[in-house]
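Thread title: Can someone regenerate the structure for this chain?

I was given the following input by a collaborator and told the matching structure tokens would be attached. They weren't. Posting the sequence so someone can regenerate them.
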Amino acid sequence: MKSLFAISLYADVVIDTTTVINNTETYQIYTDEAYVYLTIETIDSKVATSILRQGINVYFDTKGKKKKNVFITYPIANNQRPPRRNKDTPNETREFPDNDSIIRQIGYRLKNNTPQKALYQYYDKTKEFNTLLNNEGITINLAVNEERNSFIYYLKIPNNKINVKSGINFNKLSIGVKTVEMSRDNSERTRPTQQASVRGGGRRGGGRSNGGAPQGRSGNGPGGGDQGRSKGRKTESVPAIDFWFKTISK
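Best answer:
Regenerated them for you:
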């Protein structure tokens, strides 16, 4: 195994011989004569949840730039909304799961239902493949490390899937990791308020005009109930990953 060190191109990071840390994510990468191996680990349940629901693109550029011609998308974005809470629950203070509990729940879910579809893009060619059984030589997996209570994304990709030309030098390989943007074809995400929240930069409220449901009523009209319930609820933005780093073989 070659010894690698990583240089951040676009963020302040902690650097050592094999690891790059950006925000709450830890990136580990190394290569051999046939493969590139990438591990992304986080203890942040919000980041883990966003990866599961939206998926991430992992880009590869052997020239050390930020070209997005070759990449893997996994998991394929899940646009389903989270399950609603029981409406019959009495009005009382609710205890929301803490960070570690959510990570454990994710681990249980992955043991029973790991996403198996991924996309491989090489310039203008796109192919969907099964992560458990494919002819691409690509291995992808999601897991939870129970000892560290962390969420892990693992990718193993053949060098010839990053660049089909033989004899390519991977010394300048740069890797980009970016959260897949939510699809706009979902009606719940076409509202400006929802879209701003997903992108992590906006406020939940204020997206609709004041001409909605009449005052004094909690929204018997379309969408009014959701408005009434959301007024007293604080919405946190979904963390988005958008990070490039460069690996250089010693």
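The radius of gyration is 21 Å.
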